[in-house]
Amino acid sequence: MVEEENIRVVRCGGSELNFRRAVFSADSKYIFCVSGDFVKVYSTVTEECVHILHGHRNLVTGIQLNPNNHLQLYSCSLDGTIKLWDYIDGILIKTFIVGCKLHALFTLAQAEDSVFVIVNKEKPVKLPKSSSQEVEAKELSFVLDYINQSPKCIAFGNEGVYVAAVREFYLSVYFFKKKTTSRFTLSSSRNKKHAKNNFTCVACHPTEDCIASGHMDGKIRLWRNFYDDKKYTYTCLHWHHDMVMDLAFSVTGTSLLSGGRESVLVEWRDATEKNKEFLPRLGATIEHISVSPAGDLFCTSHSDNKIIIIHRNLEASAVIQGLVKDRSIFTGLMIDPRTKALVLNGKPGHLQFYSLQSDKQLYNLDIIQQEYINDYGLIQIELTKAAFGCFGNWLATVEQRQEKETELELQMKLWMYNKKTQGFILNTKINMPHEDCITALCFCNAEKSEQPTLVTASKDGYFKVWILTDDSDIYKKAVGWTCDFVGSYHKYQATNCCFSEDGSLLAVSFEEIVTIWDSVTWELKCTFCQRAGKIRHLCFGRLTCSKYLLGATENGILCCWNLLSCALEWNAKLNVRVMEPDPNSENIAAISQSSVGSDLFVFKPSEPRPLYIQKGISREKVQWGVFVPRDVPESFTSEAYQWLNRSQFYFLTKSQSLLTFSTKSPEEKLTPTSKQLLAEESLPTTPFYFILGKHRQQQDEKLNETLENELVQLPLTENIPAISELLHTPAHVLPSAAFLCSMFVNSLLLSKETKSAKEIPEDVDMEEEKESEDSDEENDFTEKVQDTSNTGLGEDIIHQLSKSEEKELRKFRKIDYSWIAAL
Amino acid sequence: MGEFKVHRVRFFNYVPSGIRCVAYNNQSNRLAVSRTDGTVEIYNLSANYFQEKFFPGHESRATEALCWAEGQRLFSAGLNGEIMEYDLQALNIKYAMDAFGGPIWSMAASPSGSQLLVGCEDGSVKLFQITPDKIQFERNFDRQKSRILSLSWHPSGTHIAAGSIDYISVFDVKSGSAVHKMIVDRQYMGVSKRKCIVWGVAFLSDGTIISVDSAGKVQFWDSATGTLVKSHLIANADVQSIAVADQEDSFVVGTAEGTVFHFQLVPVTSNSSEKQWVRTKPFQHHTHDVRTVAHSPTALISGGTDTHLVFRPLMEKVEVKNYDAALRKITFPHRCLISCSKKRQLLLFQFAHHLELWRLGSTVATGKFLVSGKNGDTLPLSKNADHLLHLKTKGPENIICSCISPCGSWIAYSTVSRFFLYRLNYEHDNISLKRVSKMPAFLRSALQILFSEDSTKLFVASNQGALHIVQLSGGSFKHLHAFQPQSGTVEAMCLLAVSPDGNWLAASGTSAGVHVYNVKQLKLHCTVPAYNFPVTAMAIAPNTNNLVIAHSDQQVFEYSIPDKQYTDWSRTVQKQGFHHLWLQRDTPITHISFHPKRPMHILLHDAYMFCIIDKSLPLPNDKTLLYNPFPPTNESDVIRRRTAHAFKISKIYKPLLFMDLLDERTLVAVERPLDDIIAQLPPPIKKKKFGT
Which residue among B269, B280, B690 sits closest to A234, beta carbon to beta carbon? Predict the structure, then answer.
């Protein structure tokens, strides 16, 4: 197993896919989008993530295809570097260090050796041509100032003759040839009629001198003749009623695409007002629009972290959906016991099921089932609570809408999992289950319980027990939920509820007091009161610690009661924000909040000493956390990491970044898919492949045998490593033909020692591995290949060394032994 | 400023008639406008857009086309099938000639100006030769099967384009035969309409024909091949008019939705010579159909059913950003349609085909309200205004001018062919009207009528350039004298002013200076030095006999008739100059009057303000506030005196058509709110408005 390194907090997907415009590859097969510190490569057909390009140490802020080689991709990041990638293989080719925060990146085919970036002032960066991998790019020249940081506000037009930038009420156009800037001003907000005249985005016509600008009030202006400060003119197109979020011209320039909060993609044909087409109901605000260089696809990025790929005829063809992070999370983080997906609030009125493994949304469950009207200041129905019960067979949701203090609309829905449709179906709808907001919701998840039971706690001072019963169906087939018991304690507000692991006890907290109820007779067994503030979190211990009950109060006290002795076992001063029990162990994770940041404590209820403490896991407030059971248990031996063996802890901060703890280095987190893609054969590894592949191999062997018998052994070209290497390495990373030639010829020569020929592949493999580590040794690599092919049997011993030994040796070689001399 | 009781009159039910055609003359920078009632007006764009001439309408002469030819000659054609030429000097119709092709829908003068082309109902296109004093039929072109609604000459004069129903024809002028026939798509937003009417065509020098049609399309055709090049769908309703700039780099179209679209020829890229037509800016200055548009070098001009004439300057063509760069909307005529009898508190309203006489209401609440009431209070009416008389004209001709005598017992009006004089008798509440018959032949048509202050004399400016003085006594009249125009000029006089003592008569023509006649001695007294801009209003002050003249460039002069020179005050004003805001007003002063007790005051008004000039106070300079409605009362007298200046302006009443002093403390103001006019127009095309 891996060496145990330090536990680090890592981002685990769910980052914004809609942060910047997505970029299509030249053949429209792939689409690239920034995602946190990574660049993701998706297939436009299958919607699958093909590669994740990682290497940046901060947010990636811009991506562009290399205009001179469309198999390469430039990316820039806030860490001050521009990286050049080979996106087909997912290889980093070059890094250019600029040194200041880069906000956006533009490339131009006309400016071969430079790219344009937005720093705090926009500058084109000269990219020196150099073969080395890390280059410092120092040559900056200044183009335009007073511009917006968003790349939507900059556009390069008509083969790079000019660049247009907008900000507030200004449109600036810089002409590269003349080196002059024209600035056009719209009447500002002082005039009431033009109150919302601000520019929001800009796009340039690909062949004509025409600039399209989007505005706050929903207008699109098409500027022409802008090389003349006086004779400039513009046309207005007006359909959007709200701000135009993004604009894009089609490749030929015959149509203009626009989008905004209406969630409708508008195609303006011939830039005329009367000739427009719509693609409505896209689900959420359109943030970005991009067009494929081939012209066959469009794509829109939406505020709900979604990318829709749209055909030229305005038909949506694929949806890439990330974790929806549009709104505040009320339900907290849950794990669907069936799919092991993370469940939380998604689109308005929906629960989203998000796969942590594939960083992909599985599906959306429409809970509220009402048309969402997107308008500012409208009070919406909110999905506030949700809980899974009975191993994922039941889902309970609570939605509420409070217009005024006294007018509360409350609804509880119970959903049953239908095996046939593989989805949740509404079973029971309960209007006003309580008189006031529901504060907690929990199912009895005991294995032996024969009757599904649900408990709701509410501010109205009651907790209610709901059970599944026969409904009044004559066939006794329909089932529904009814209220079985209503409990209260001195009219205190019920704040939390929790079942013990075996389901025999129910703990309900009423403000400062914790009450324990027998779940069979619904008798009050005992009460605990610590007078330390309202109970914020409540949970039972598990497995060996099931006799303990934990409660965290608002005054920053964490209490542990022994249920057998009915006494306080221990307490600790800890301002607990999140407390989550691990379902697979006794461990409980608590995240405390301090002024500096959040700290994590992992402990067992049986002992007050924490197992593990990590300080400063996040600067922000942590809102929710959850333990996710691992599919394959890890085997950390160190005591501190044992808690991560069976489950993984995920948490969500206030800015809605989903984080987790990991010991692996980021390189190892690479998903295996990217390696699959590098597989020699282009055949997909389907079950059929394994069957057929084996069969074919056998055939080949047979053939070989026969051939061996008949002829001089002629090595199949496929088997010669040099040739296969030659054929499979992307052209742009290959050394010059002079090197390749001799290698190629040598490889075709029949060597007498067949043995040594067989040895070579291993060696090459090893070298290749090294090369991927640090490819600045590229050149001597090929030389070595030559060497090895020339050398005879004498070096066999070295070649037989295992890879790890070889690595060790290399390490030794690199270590500086000069200190010995000094002795 | 003084306090006045104001009769705020809103019962003048005047609705200007809709604009049908406009024609811009580049040479003289004048605009001819024809209205649906047949009136033709000439605006001088150089003289601050002043309406300097007008030709009264005629019921049967609805103009459909208007054009300038051979420099300054103005022709019109209409549905009565006649082509008319207007005499711009004598302000009458020179001749009318039947084209014998049924109603005429379109007319175009050749680029050289020597030929005139008309398109008729029967599908014929007729070519006329313009001779120095007439037009002469030359020949017919190939007859088309339906009416010719629009015509356009190729700038070289070799070809013409004619828009008809469903198609456009191209004719060769030499042979007169149709070269091409281009069928226009009937489709309208995917729905096939019954017919597609080509409302306008324009032939460009590169051979492109631009057509506008009832399906809302602007289309570009190649006349060499007869093919459609490009189509712009710009409206859901008809596109009714088109006008191209002389440079052929921009054109303007007007739609039935009231929108005017500007198209410009814009280079595709900065470094290529290829150019394309691009629709640039829409202008929504009209509520109703834009029936006609014109393109002057610096402005887009449009007019339509909503009676507004709109000048939209092209910012890129305006050299200096002065007041010429502002939008102008002309709705009301630049002459007085109202006269007032001070003695009997009567108002005479002039309409196109009738006159209305109203007696003003009165209030008994005098003492108490005037003492305790605040400025701006409404006084209760004790007696409503009375509609005394509704006098319909005979015949189809419009009224040119009208007047009621100060004593209220005479009413005179004139049409193009007849002059009418009525005597009114008041017996308590009853009125009897008696027409004075047997008017002399020379009084056939008058351009301006004026009674003397004591109502004993009638002054008539006839369109032959002569001024007649008629003595009125009892029920009869006697022709006293006629001032004949100076030899050689035939220019008509269109403004008259008489001194309150009846000794002096001032008369002004459209361009020449103001002549002052001595009525007692019946001879020309003097001529006020000529000024570049036409006179919009003038009046002679009591006692001093100073003639106050307002010009269309907003200058005001005071000329002493006895001294035959400008007064000192006028010289000071000219030396110091008027306030820049005063000069930037865009409606002319239409009426001037004087306060009988305050000789230093001059009362004048235009459509948007009423002003009292107090000659005793210092003139404002450009730094002082010109419009100062309520001088701060809480400030000390020193400050008030310092901020006070000669111009006291009130903008309470607008649009103001008439304002006069009835007596020392009473004013009458006649307003015509624009909303009331719009309410009387036919409903506009309904457009869906977002959010309603």
Answer: B280
Query: Do the chains contact at B264 and A233, CB–CB below 8 Å?
Result: yes
Look up residue B361 and give its two tokens.
Answer: 């209401």
**Neighboring chain B residues of A274 at a CB cutoff of 8 Å:** 189, 216, 233-236
User: The dihedral of CA B502, B508, B509, B514: what is its sign?
Assistant: positive
Residue A645 bridge partners (DSSP): none
Tell me if B361 sits within 8 A of B381, measured CB to CB.
yes
Q: pLDDT confidence of A687, banded at 50, 70, 90?
A: low
CB-based burial, B158-187: b 16+ in 10 Å, e otherwise? ebbbbbbbbbbbbbebeeeebbbebebeee
Confidence of residue A782 (pLDDT cuts 50, 70, 90): very low
Least confident piece of the model among A527-536, A640-649, A802-811, B6-15: A802-811
Interface predicted TM-score (ipTM): 0.81
User: Dihedral of CA A621/A623/A624/A630: which sign?
Assistant: negative
Cα angle at A105 between A141 and A149, to 5 degrees? 85
Write the secondary structure of B297-327 as one string of H (helix), E (strand) and C (coil).
Answer: CCEEEEEECCCCEEEEECHHHCCCCCHHHCC
Query: A–B: how many Cβ contacts below 8 A?
Result: 55
- Contact with chain A for residue B596, Cβ under 8 A: no
Residues A163, A156: contact at Cβ < 8 Å?
yes
- Using CA atoms, how far residue B641 sits from B624, B638, B651, in Å, is 13, 5, 22
Instruction: Tokens 């711009």: give the residue.
Output: B88
Choose from B231, B280, B312, B688 for mutation: most chain A CBs within 10 A.
B280
CB A658 within 8 A of CB A13: yes
Closest by CA position to B270, among listed A224, A233, A212:
A224
Nearest Cα to B606, choosing from B675, B661, B669, B665? B669
Model pLDDT, residue A24: 93
Q: What average pLDDT does the structure give for chain A?
A: 79
CB of B559 within 8 A of CB of B544? no
pLDDT of amino acid A679: 40
Q: Is B46 helix (H, G, I), strand (E, B) or coil?
A: coil
Q: Which residues pair with B187 in a beta bridge?
A: B192
Mean pLDDT of B562-584: 89
Q: Is the pTM of this model over 0.90?
A: no
Q: What is the pLDDT of residues A720-729, one digit of tens each?
A: 666 776 777 7
**Tens-digit pLDDT profile for residues B161-179:** 999 999 999 999 999 999 9
Of the residues A177, A186, A204, A209, the best mutation for testing chain B's interface (the one with the most B CB atoms within 10 Å of its CB) is A209
Which has the minimum average pLDDT: A597-611, B203-217, B280-294?
A: A597-611
- In B415-540, the DSSP E strands lie at 419-427, 430-435, 446-451, 457-462, 467-473, 476-483, 493-498, 504-509, 514-518, 523-527, 535-540
The pLDDT score that the predictor gives to residue B34 is 94
C-alpha torsion angle, residues A686, A691, A693, A697 (rounded to 10): 170
Nearest CA in chain B to A230: B316
Closest listed residue to residue A485, CA positions, set A502, A497, A500, A473: A497
- Angstroms from A23 CA to nearest CA on chain B: 27
Question: With an 8 Å Cβ cutoff, are B278 and A224 in contact?
Answer: yes
**Two tokens, residue B172:** 């060769």
Least CB–CB distance from A274: residue in B233, B270, B691: B233
Residues from chain B that touch A228, judged by Cβ atoms under 8 A, are 316
Q: In 3-state terms, what secondary structure has residue B276?
A: strand
- Using a CB-CB cut-off of 8 Å, the residues of chain B touching A173 are none
* Cis geometry, peptide bond prior to residue B655 (ω within 30 degrees of 0): yes
The amino acid that residue B357 corresponds to is: L
